[in-house]
Amino acid sequence: MKKQPKTSLGKRGALGISTGANAVINVIMVLISLSCLLPILLIYVSSFTAESAIRAHGFSLFPKEWSLSAYQMLFEESLAQIVVSYRNTAVLTVVGTVLSLFIMTMYAYAISRQVFAARKALTFFAYFTMLFSGGLVPSYIVNTTIFGLRDNMLVLLLPSLVGAYNIIVLRTFFSSADNTPIIEAAKVDGASEFRIYGQIILPISKPALATIGLFTAIAYFSKWFEVMLYIDSKSKWTIQYMLQRVMQDIQYLRANPDLLMSEEGAEMLANLPNESAKMALTVLTMTPVLAFYPYFQKYFVKGLTLGAVKG
Amino acid sequence: MSSNTLHRASRRRGLSLRTTENLSLWLMALPAIVLFLCFAYLPMTGVVLAFKSFRPKHGIFLSPWVGLKNFEFMFRNATFWMTVRNTLLYNVAFMVIGIVGPLVFAIALNEVRPKGAARMYQTLTIMPHFVSYVVVSVIVFAILSADSGILGNLYKQRGQQPIAFYSEPKYWPWILSGVYLWKNIGYSSIIFLGTITGISDEFYEAAVIDGATKWQQIRHITLPFLKPMVVVLTIMRVGQMFSSNFDLFYQVPMNSGQLYSVTNTINVFVYNTLRNSNNVSLSSAVGFVQSVAGFLLVMGTNQVIRMIDSDLAMF
To answer: What is the reported pLDDT for B58?
Structure first.
C-alpha cells in the first residue's frame, strides 16, 4: 500500500534521498574524508616510525617498527633552534593577532559610524588596497631601503597587521541593524566613542572576532615567505621556515649531487634531520592549528556564509 | 532666555559634540591609516621602477628613467611567456576544479544522513585547508619521493623502477591540481552549503507533490538557487587570472628547476628573478604588468557582476 504523501513529507521522508542512494553517498563521503585525513595521519605515523623501518620499506601507515627515536634525535640535535623558532612564531602569532584585531576593529568601527565625516573616504582608502598593489618588488625595496627592515622581525609583523577584506567584513558586522539602537541609547547616556567601541561593540561581536582572529592567527603562524625574503639570522626564523629550509636543502642536494663530494655539501647533509626526524618536525609545525580549528568551526562556517550573502 | 538663544546654544553644543566624536573616530582609524600608507600606498608608487634602472644608492625615486627598455627585455624573455601561459592555464583549470568540485560536494553533503556523519565529513574535509603549504610539500614528498615515498615503494615492491617525480614535468599539472582540490574541496563547499540550507523546504515539498525525482529537484531547484553565486565566483576568478598562489607553485614542487616548464608561474618568476638573479629591472616590469592587468580585470569583472546582480558587486 502506498503511503500518504502527507506523512512521507518532511526531512526524513520523500524530501530526502532513498536509503540506497544514501548508502552510496556515505561510502563516497567516507572515501573523500579518508583521502583528506590519511595523508596527514601518514606524517604523524611516520614521526613515530623507526628510521630503519623507513629506510627498508619507506613511509607507511602501518610501520614495521614503532619508535620515539625521531623526537629524541630531533631534540638532541636541534632543540635550541626549535625553541628559538617556536618562540618567535608564538610571539609573532600572539602579538600579531591581538594588535591586528585592535587596529582593524577600531578602523572598522570608525567607518561603520554614520556620524563620521570621513566614513566614505576611509572606506575607499582601505578598499583600494584590494584592487591595486605595488607587488613584490616595490614592497621589497620600500621595506628594505626606506624602512630598513632587512633581517628585522618587524617586517614579519607590521605589513600584515591590516587587511582590507577583514576590515570590510568587520564593518558589515558592526553596522548591522541590531547594533544601532544600542549605540543610540549609549549616546544619550553620554558615552564616548571609545567607550561604545570597547564596552558595547567588542563584547557583542565575539563571533566575528573569533573568526577573523582565527584566520589572522593562522596567517601569522604560517609565515615563511617573508622570512625567506627578508631574514638572514637563524635566531629570527619561524618554525614554518625552519621546516621549509630542511625541505629546500634536501631539494638542493638532490639537484646538485656533485655537492655531496664537497665539504659544503657534506656539512649540509650532516645537518639535515633523517626522514623520521623530518616528520617529527612537521608534526610540531602543523599540530597547533589542527588542534584548534575544530573549536572555531561553528564560528567560521557561519562567518563565511554571512560574508557570501553580504558580498 | 529666549528660544532663539536656546536653539543656538544647543546647536553649538551639537556641533562641538560632532567635532569630538569625529576627532575620536579619526584617532581610532589612525593606526590603520599609517599602516596602509607605509605598506600598501608607498609600495604602489614603487611601480614606477618598471620604467627605471634601479640603483640601490639612489633609491626608487632618484634612479634614472629608462623608458620602456625593461619591457623590451621582458617581451624578449621566453621564460616570461612560459610563466604567463602556465598562470593562465592553471587558473582556468582551478576555476573548474575549484567551483565544480566543492559544488557537487556541498549538494551531496546536504543530502547525506545521519546529520552527525555529515558534520564529521565536513570537519575532516576542511582539515587540509588548515595545513600550511610547507607541510603540504612534506606530505607530497612522503608520497612521491623515489627513495622512501609510498608510491616509490609500491614500484619497488613490484620490482619496478620508481618514477622520479621531482624531475618529470609531465605529472605535475595533475599533481598540483590534485593538491589544489584536496586543500579546497571541503572549505570552499561551506559557502555553497550555506546557500543550499537557506532554500525553503516548501520548494521541495511542492516538487515532491508534483512527482519530481531527487535528480529533478536538484536540477530545477537547488542548482538555479546556486547559479548567481557560481556566476559571481567564476567572474571573480577571471579577475584573479594573472595571479597565482606562490606557496602552491614554489613550495609543493620544491622549486625544482627541472619542473619549471610546468610549475613556474608569474609570481614564482618574479621572486626568482628578484632574489636569485637579482634582476630588479625585469622583475619590476613583470610585476607592473601583473598589477595593472589585475587592476583592470578586477574593475572590469566587477562591472559585469554589477550588471548581473548589483547586490553581489563589490563596489
So the answer is: 85
Contacts of B258 in chain A (CB under 8 A): 255
Residues 6+ apart with CB under 8 A from A14: A5, A8, B208
Residue ranges and CATH numbers for the domains of chain B are: 85-265 (1.10.3720.10)
Interatomic CA distance for residues A198 and A209, integer angstroms: 13
Q: Do B60 and A142 touch (CB under 8 A)?
A: yes
Give the chain B residue nearest A112 (alpha carbons).
B25
**Residues A237-280 pLDDT 10s:** 999 999 999 888 888 887 777 777 787 777 777 777 888 999 99
The architecture CATH gives domain A70-310: Orthogonal Bundle (1.10)
DSSP character string of A158-204: GGGS--HHHHHHHHHHHTSTTHHHHHHHHHHTT--HHHIIIIIIHHH
Cβ–Cβ gap B35/A159 under 8 Å: yes
Please tell me the pTM assigned to this model: 0.89
Q: Rounded to whole angstroms, how far apart are CA atoms B151 and A58? A: 9
Cα angle for residues B305, B311, B315 (degrees, 5° grid): 65
CA B110 to chain centre: 26
pLDDT at A11 over 50: no
Q: Parse chain A into domains and list their residue ranges.
A: 5-47, 70-310
Residue B40's pLDDT is: 96
